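Hallway conversation turned thread

IA: we were arguing at lunch whether anyone had actually written out diguanylate cyclase end to end. Turns out nobody had. So, for the record, here is the sequence (416 residues) and right after it the structure tokens. Reply here if something looks off.
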Amino acid sequence: MQLDLQTISIVSCAATFMIGAILLAIWWHDRNSALIGWWGLSQLVLGIGLGMAACGAAMKLPVVVALAQALIIMGTAVMWMAAREFNGRTFNALLVAAWPVAYVMIAALFVISFDQRLFMTSATIAALLLLTASEFARPGQDPSSSRWVAMLLLCFTAASYLIWLPLTVSLPILATGGGETSAWFPAALLLAMLARIALAFVILFIAQEQQERRQHTFARTDALTGLPNRRALFEAANRLRQAVRRKKTATATSVMILDLDHFKRINDNYGHRVGDNVLQYFARTLVSTLDEDTIVGRLGGEEFAAILPNTPIEVAQAEAERVRVAFANSGAFIGGIPVGSTVSIGVASHIGTDYDLSALFHRADGALYAAKQAGRNRVECAGTLSQDEAALDSRWLEEQHPLTAQSTRRFRGSAA
């Protein structure tokens, strides 16, 4: 079947414009993903450029065709910038404008022919598409099959534009009428159009995956401090416990429970805004003072917790003292207000290949209570339990606090 160049050009223009309009409508509905919005805008610009190019070629208006090619380059540059912003970099309008402006200046200054402009346009678009593909393949990004599909489709689309390079040399359109007689030109347009349609679906999948990751993170992150919340903390503790069991080598695991002293008084005297600042400041102090492999989180209110893998009780006590001293020295004034913030810390530890998470946290909580009773702004340790002692302590917790034990078991079951 013979493909008609003019028909394919009209279909490609209409399809690209519709893709852009649909993506922009989706973005306008919830405005959660800038990637969808910028990608939709790029398709609108591409659609307008393709339409202008088809009209200019039919009416034999080289100036219109040149401006259309500049618009097509601009639309592709917006795609590149959209991918850059998706990777956390700022959308740079100057970089977008630089490509079409450079093309127009070269075309105007050197008065190049139609086929030369087509050659330059195709090479520029292919380069921008490959730059866009490289953004989706940047190392350190979240692994996603959709990202790799987008990269492959962009490379395929770039290849469809690169087809034009040898064709403009071997079959100059204006000189030989190659655009009307060769099946390669409409085929290249058709391949590029199909790739743009497929890319639109992939972009939607990428945006959906990003939104799901954000929701997953928000569900496990304390909104005020940015630390893992209770749920995320216990999930991490459970994963650590399973890792210890798989190693089958006895190791020391320590837990801290930290509670800000007289926090209600700070809220009453200075207001909840100052109280929130105190919580945020303590969270930063906790993260900056403890080692990177320590799992920290906010249990709720003014209570925090830290899990220290491969850490005996003596080292955990020293780490807790570092946190206490650091916060006592730096938390005396928050935002210029003499709040006098301090923290009490309870520490517990277990040595073995398995341990009951609820029992370990219960012992750390008991040590925290002892620190409060002893005058606050201090560290108390519950001591280290062996495997057998931990089992006895777990049974005691089951008898004395069955609701707490059942709640912990249900949480561990859901996390697993």
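OS: looked through it. The two ends are 57 Å apart (CA to CA).
IA: good, adding that to the notes. Residues 174-181, 387-416 have pLDDT under 50 and may be disordered.
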